Amino acid sequence: MGGSISTLLSNDAASCIAVAERMIALGTHDGTVHILDFLGNQVKEFRSHTATVNDLSFDIEGEYVGSCSDDGFVVINSLFTDERMKFEYHRPMKAISLDPDYSRNSSRRFVAGGLAGQLFLNSKKWLGYRDQVLHSGEGPIHAVKWRTSLIAWANDVGVKVYDTANDQRITFIERPRGTPRPELLLPHLVWQDDTLLVIGWGTSVKIAAIRGNSYRGANGTQRLVAISSTKHVDIVASFQTSYSISGIAPYGDTLVVLAYIPEKEDGEKEFSSTTSRQGSAQRPEVRIVTWKNDELATDALPVHGFEHYKAKDYSLAHAPFSGSSYAGGQWAAGDEPLYYIVSPKDVVIAKPRDAEDHISWLLQHGWHEKALAAVEAGQGRTELLDEVGTRYLDHLILERKYAEAASLCPKLLRGSASAWERWVFHFAHLRQLPLLVPYIPTDNPRLRDTAYEVALVALATNPSFHKDLLSTIKSWPPVIYSALPVISAIEPQLNTSSMTDALKETLAELYIIDGQHEKALALYADLLKPELFDFIEKYNLHDAIRDKVVQLMMLDGKRAVSLLIQNRDLIPPVEVVPKLLDASNKCDSRYFLHLYLHSLFETSPHAGKDFHDMQVELYADYDQKMLLPFLRSSQHYQLEKAYEICVKRDLLREQVFILGRMGNSKKALAVIVNKLEDIEEAVEFVTMQHDDELWEELIKQCLHRPEMVGMLLEHTVGNLDPLYIVNMVPNGLQIPRLRDRLVKIITDYRTETSLRHGCNDILKADCVNLLVKYYKEARHAVCLGSGEDEVRPKRDNGRATERGAGGVRRMEKYKTRGGGRCCMCFDPFSIMNVSVVVFFCCHAYHTTCLMDSMHSISSKSASSQVSEYDDYDHNDDEDNDTKSSTPRMRCILCTTAAQ
Questions:
Q1: For 63-73, what is each residue's pLDDT tens digit?
Q2: pTM score, whole prediction
Q3: What is the C-alpha separation between 139 and 310, in angstroms, rounded?
Q4: Distance between CA atoms of 586 and 897, rounded to whole angstroms?
Q5: Would you give the distance in Å from CA 82 to the centre of its chain?
Q6: Residues 85, 76: contact at Cβ < 8 Å?
């Protein structure tokens, strides 16, 4: 008990205690009675005695307290008035008990006894207070308890019960054998209810039941007889203990015993003041036992100075039963059973452990996990979880079990944002925050931005947790924290040994959150992230890839080439090529360069013309099939350098092409014949060169190889006379399959000759037909001038107008023999707006003059003829013989002259 106890007992010692329903009375060795509340705070003080207070007693209402002392006085004080009564007995008084109805009964009775060996019943009469001796002659009175009308007391002989209602003694219970003298070990009497008396003396416990005799009525029922002479006592329970009893009290159907553990088997010696060893006593214990001496619980009390105390130095009292439970001897529902253990320097409050006490006890003994399980099982208040959780976490922190503490935070802190923030900063102070980060909630509750930022910075500064930082950044919503403090913590680590790939990717993610996409691109490029290309397209970062060419190629050459080609206006080849060349130590940059230049050439043959010399070598190294098409398509490479490359790599057809382009046809032919050994290609090459000397060179190079001669004979038909080759073949040269080849040559020659004759005949026939057609066309006339509009109304109006307006001008081109005059009327064409007909013989006529002169032809026919003649001007390819059989218009002068 706290409060004023420590102060009161600092210079004094407690001797006895009594508990009422609303307060506590504590007696001390200096004769003072202290009235305390249940927290131990002093309410009143009665300096009633000059010697040790031996016993205290409250009435049932708790309005009066009586005390007795070694000074021989009994004092009764009113707690709420100034009333005080003092009685002197001249001998030390050891026990007192007020009438339970003391405050309500005008007789003001109490019973007291002491070393005089007399038990006094004091009551108020008409003439004052008078003492009645209830018992004497059997030694000092050691204890007395009054319940209803029953008074129980103990002396040296045993325990007696007296009924004040009939002024008769009911029973006698003998003192247990072997019990030390009462002066050394006092007896303890407790009324559990109106009929049960609990006696604890030495090492013996007896429970006596006060009963009344019954008789059988006429109807067979049992009835209790209400006269005292019929009452008797039954011992309903009795057992021996292995310890000395310093106090006893009821606890429902069990007993609470204050046990003093003796050190010797001989109890008498143990309690002998001459033989006991000072300073070696054990702790007193509070034990709960059944009426059969089954121990249910044991608790040792850590009182001050227990080593020097004896059994009689301790006492036990319990709070009175309240209300209707008083008579029944059981705690009422809602009442808290309280027991008070008094030692000279301490007052200890004992009460049955509830779930919260159990949890507190577990915490005190370091069993935090069990305490947590008990709280979660609903054995305590919900609010207790916070306390248990905090103490559990503190315990784990002290044990340096940081990971386990972090894993328990979600269960222990739950939805308390303030608790979470407190532990976040506590872990940060301990430099163990990375262990807590995976468990920090981002919603319900949501913490302050600072808490999340501190957590991320803690991960960023520890290389061991960089991967955890990356996963945290990806999982946490960006809105709950600011990226700038974390970026500021990471950026100084760039280009240092602590910069890991995970930290780079984390920094890139933070740059994206902060809107710094170009910086994020740079980090993604260094990390060769596959999503780099999508990232560029998403944020339109084509301008920023200028310095990331090599990384893009290393990541995905095809996509990188496509990206660079599409954006060659922003990143021209003159910038891309040097960057790839400078990256030779990082990757196969020449292969990347080949991919880029190849795609560039396919897209635009002239875009990378400055690098075609380099491209020749790249094709030779990486894609030889494409080299020859490239050599044929490009005009921007040096032939000599390209030839050297082809020679080094033994690329024969490419050598042939380059030699041919260089004009060194003989050397090219030698490569084909001697290295490629491909006569077909050699013949094709010589044919394309249109050089007879090459044929001779080809033949010369083949003559010393019989198989070549045979193949040459097969493939020169149509290009060279086989007899020429045969004549040059040395005599005696054995040519494989010569007979078959000669047969084939002759057959092919005959076929070729036949085809030539047929072609010549067709050619001659075509020449004759074309000459005839030319002759006929030459005889046709051309109609010029405005007359065409009338003659050919179906022609296009715009075209006719052009002819009419330009007829005279067009006539100027024709050098007519009439000097620009009609050969019939000799009038100049310019003075008449009349259509003109011109013949290929250079004679020209007015259309009217010509038609009038041809009187043999009707005007309808003439008109039709003019239209037909006009058609010749526009349909030169038509076969004139298929036209109408109408007589053709002829030049009059030429016809006349011919006739």
A1: 999 999 999 99
A2: 0.51
A3: 23
A4: 97
A5: 76
A6: yes
